[in-house]
Design brief:
alpha+beta, 5-stranded antiparallel beta sheet, 23% helix, 39% strand, globular
Length: 136
């Protein structure tokens, strides 16, 4: 189901709670909502659709990818950039890393670890900030 985009700063600043198997329907809504906004957005965190759970969805190399309980475990090559967000107006400066390694769980709650580079790494870092209550 396509959900409305959360714009309440106080809600967005809350740290998200770990996701569990019962939260899979939230991931489905997250996917549907991101696909509905694909013309203006490349990634979303569950709190952007009103659920304070550690779930993100994003486009990676032309396909949709989701992560449950993602954690940044390594980062390298910092750079400065500007980003926008559907939950906020305008763009903001931020520091990102060109290469990151993320530990996460799949939809089946299997543990995975994967390295990402470039724009995919930037998207993931933005969504991880959302999960931590960080608004750029």
């Amino acid at each position: 189901m396509v959900r409305s985009i959360q714009k309440d700063i106080f809600f967005l600043k809350k740290k998200s709670e770990p996701a569990a198997k019962k939260d899979i329907p939230i991931a489905d809504d997250l996917r549907d909502t991101l696909l509905a906004h694909a013309h203006e957005c490349v990634g979303m965190a569950a709190n952007m659709i009103g659920y304070s759970k550690r779930i993100i969805g994003f486009f990676h190399e032309g396909s949709y990818m989701e992560m449950f309980n993602p954690r940044l475990v390594a980062r390298a090559v910092p750079y400065e950039t500007e980003e926008g967000c559907l939950s906020l107006t305008g763009v903001r400066k931020t520091t990102r890393y060109r290469m990151i390694t993320v530990s996460y769980q799949t939809r089946n709650f299997e543990e995975k670890q994967q390295m990402f580079m470039g724009f995919s790494a930037q998207i993931i870092q933005h969504e991880l900030d959302h999960l931590s209550g960080i608004i750029i």
